[in-house]
Amino acid sequence: VSITVAPPGPAEPVHSPTVIVGRRKHKRRNPAVRKFFFKNGLRVFVIGYLAMLVAVPVATIAYRAFEPGFSTAWRDLTDPGGAGTGDFVHALILTLVVAAIAVPLNTVFGVGTALLLARHRFPGARLLDAAIDLPIAISPVVVGLSLLLVYDRSGWIGSWLAGRGIQIAFSIPGIVLASAFISIPYVAREVLPVLQEIGTEQEQAAATLGAGPIVTLLRITLPSIRWGIAYGVVLTTARVLGEFGAVSIISGNIQGQTETLTLYVSNQFADYNLVGAYMGGLVLAVISLLVLGLLSLSKRKESRSWRSKSAESQSASARQ
Amino acid sequence: VRRGIIRSSGPGAAVIYLSLLVLIPIAAVASQAFSGGWSPFWGAIRNPETWAALRLTLLSAVIVVIVNTFAGTAVAWVLVRDKFPGKKLLGALVDLPFALPTVIAGLTLLTLYGPDSPIHLDVANTRLAVWVALAFVTLPFAVRSIQPVLEELDLDAEEAAASLGANSFTVFRRIVLPSLAPAMISGASLAFARALGEYGSLVLFTSGLPFKTMVASIRIFGFVESDDYQAAAAVSLFLLLGSLAILLALGALRRHLTRDEVSA
């Protein structure tokens, strides 16, 4: 019986075995090798692109600002007799004042509009929804021009206000208007999806328990959208502090008077006071880094509160 | 009664705020653009310097949006699928152009790629400078539109395709790309709108040289400086309508693609 099982003869494989093994080896290795090169090539490309476009330029500005030494740079900026002649401090304060007015305005508008769009039906809701995004699609220069045409002394509204002694263009109110214009969308766009996601169950429960609309808003709605608001407020603040094109038109760019921090940087650069320009730029760059930190913090908090909430609802439904 | 008041006054207040801030000013631009009728409007647009600026703006926006859609997809891919130390830092870097004021963006690019470049690479005041600056400011739009979709994407389909013998390029082209396409287009629309109107990052880095590096927004600024509001408004309106048309076209393309996906 055992004799019938013949051992495989050397002539049995028709093709040369080395070719097959070689091909198999080739086939097995090739995707891995390609994947290795693809993965690392992509990684190198992405790191290189981000480094050359973003990281290295921003690092260079910090280097340039401190090239003459930190104490020299700071004295130049703050000393009334220095190169900056105190304009830096004035610009910094003006920028903060403008943000302190424009950001709350847009926060109230953004939360209010998001509530309207998420909770009420009214004619023109879709138009309002679309109009909120308009500032993103408009060039800052066009924003400045459009405000100038309306609020200048010869403008539609500006002429009426000028008769009452109120000046908007080339003064602080104009800067506030421009900053508010360009930063309209951010709070509304962050809050609206959160409102749509959480639904109206809790608000209805509060209403059936006898809470009025204001109590419901303060105790139910606002607490559940607070991280959305925080995210939107940080984005709004970042845009307001950094606005340049619109502000440079509507403010008239009067040195020491309507000069915001971004205008200060460009004016110092134009005056060949590079240290002033780099220091102003560095201050704004540090503010943007802080903004990024706050954004990732509020995003993490938001997702955490979401996760705990969905876990709660899951356990609640499991109990049922 | 209180609900009724909220219901009627809420939309009213929102509309008044938007009107005073956005709608009336934009209407003023349109009105000013045609203040002398059709021929001054067209004259301002067809002025050779303006026309060159408009053409450069459109050309640059197209180039930069295409480059950044590919680069942004690569960045999003690495941020979602790849793992290496420092990846979080890389992710934070992507948002920096959004948080950084545009004029500071221009200043930083000028510091590295300008006449005083520490790496001896001077591209300031060239068209390449226009493209680098626009690539800088539009980078977050591409990445941040694609990244969430890529995160949600199911690996099952890709693994199934790979086990059926599709190589990684085929998997990407047939499985990943169709799901990403709508997000890529909406990122491209945002980047497009931004690139057409960009001003702050270009003013220091490109100097806005006529016929060479001057884009439409710098041209408008020049008209405002010389008190030629009619010409400034004409170019502004043209730019507004152009970006509106591009946004509508890209929106239609995105809807077309998502409809295909649903029917399939």
| First-last Cα distance of chain B | 50 Å
Largest interface: A-B, 82 and 80 residues
Strand proportion of chain A, as a percent range, falls in under 5%
> Which sheet architecture does the biggest sheet of chain B show?
none
Uncertain spans of chain B: none
Radius of gyration of chain B: 22 Å
- Secondary-structure-based class of chain B equals mainly alpha
The oligomeric state of the chains shown is heterodimer
Note the run of SSEs of chain A as H and E.
HHHHHHHHHHHHHH
What is the 3D form of chain B?
A: globular
Biggest sheet features of chain A: none
User: Could you report the average pLDDT of chain A, rounded to the nearest whole number?
Assistant: 81
Q: Low-confidence spans of chain A: pLDDT under 50, at least 5 residues? A: 5-27
Number-wise, the strands of chain A total 0
Number of strands of chain B: 0
Give the helix tally of chain A: 14
The string of secondary-structure elements of chain B, in order, is HHHHHHHHHHH
The amount of helix of chain A comes to over 70%
Helices of chain B, by number, come to 11
Give the overall form of chain A.
globular
